[in-house]
Fold this protein.
Amino acid sequence: AVGEVWLVGAGPGDPDLLTFKALRLMQQCDVVLHDRLISPQVLDLVRRDARRLFVGKARSQHAVPQEQINAELVRLAQQGLRVLRLKGGDPFIFGRGGEEIDTLMAHGIPFQVVPGITAASGCAAYAGIPLTHRDHAQSCVFVTGHARKDGTLDLHWDQLARRGQTVVVYMGLHTLPALCAELIVHGLPPQWPAAMVEEGTSPSQRVVVGTLGDLPQRVEAAGLKGASLLIVGEVVRLREHLAWNAGGVKDA
Amino acid sequence: AVGEVWLVGAGPGDPDLLTFKALRLMQQCDVVLHDRLISPQVLDLVRRDARRLFVGKARSQHAVPQEQINAELVRLAQQGLRVLRLKGGDPFIFGRGGEEIDTLMAHGIPFQVVPGITAASGCAAYAGIPLTHRDHAQSCVFVTGHARKDGTLDLHWDQLARRGQTVVVYMGLHTLPALCAELIVHGLPPQWPAAMVEEGTSPSQRVVVGTLGDLPQRVEAAGLKGASLLIVGEVVRLREHLAWNAGGVKDA
């Protein structure tokens, strides 16, 4: 009999932010495919005797290409296994969940998708930066800062460089200087608030607050290296105003 | 001694999507302030002997105005109580969490913010509509469809009426005809895919799929009335392609 695949969002890092549904499936699976965005504390909660397959992907050293992950999910399910595809954050927000279920459907493999807390929500709450606010941000846009093969960014700058909204950039650490520069070129002032949250919601969370003009230097000075989320907009200032000090989380 | 306030995201409806952190605080509070977006199944999980305060808000009959909720949180915490402010979805995405913590900070009340799964994530996963997809949506924007007092919508249409992105509209049921019309006026084709998800993630979830041109009639014909989320973009088509049939959730 064919098995099934559970595409599960593990949230932003803190195991306390797992959902009941996620944990239940984690404790029922035969095999788990996970990547480097899954914290060891979360992975520890997977059923002890489930096989663990690490499928990457660190930047610029994709341990296993996406096509191969898709094929592996199918292969394992066809062996009758209950396959857990555990993803950081939410599978349908920059999680490539859509591509994985495309393949599963094409092969007639039963599957379930379980949403998780996306990094934007987790980092916002743990860093004290509301993503929307009646007075400062009536909308919120999520983009990825991942560069194309030629090193450039494929973003609609005129759409992002606007007041009255919050821009959240996933995977923007390595393109931060270009991101900030383009937003200034397209009309936001160099004094526009921006913050980078590293390892958001984890005990090692660090928050670097600055402006489009100085954030790249501040982030470099702080030596951020881990998974990081960029938040751009006036809501960042609310954090300072609030003298945020939640749960002992420290600023960089 | 002063108490504290826990601003907790309860997620989109399914109690199985509560986080461990949310449930723990729900079981420790002395009093809970909740609104109509909290499902009875979730409210049932709050500590039995906690006092329950319903603070609205149904559309156009705001049971308790926001300023009064803010003041109530302060008043209860000053009595030394552990106050749970339980919110549908995520407190920092259209949850007015920013305004509530403004007030708490001004009064020196200790507080915590716990993120929840926002409606966009929950509805996407349970309706089979990825919010981002390498081929169809490289970004995702969240706005609110709540009308101003004069009945008009305060949205940047040129920014929303674009290909290659997914637009999610919270609270857009009552302004759906205007939303669709404006998106067409600003350049999206009438055939552009759009879906409305009612009571997303709950057992009574209904999904109405159509286009900008016909969704308002379809939604009216289906008689959607409950909390609804609008998703606009090519990703909606993936759902049909996928012949989605997750967990017995039915289409309208």
Summary: Chain A has two domains: 4-114, 119-248. The radius of gyration of chain A is 19 Å. The first helix of chain A runs from residue 20 to 26. Residues 246-252 of chain A have pLDDT under 50 and may be disordered.
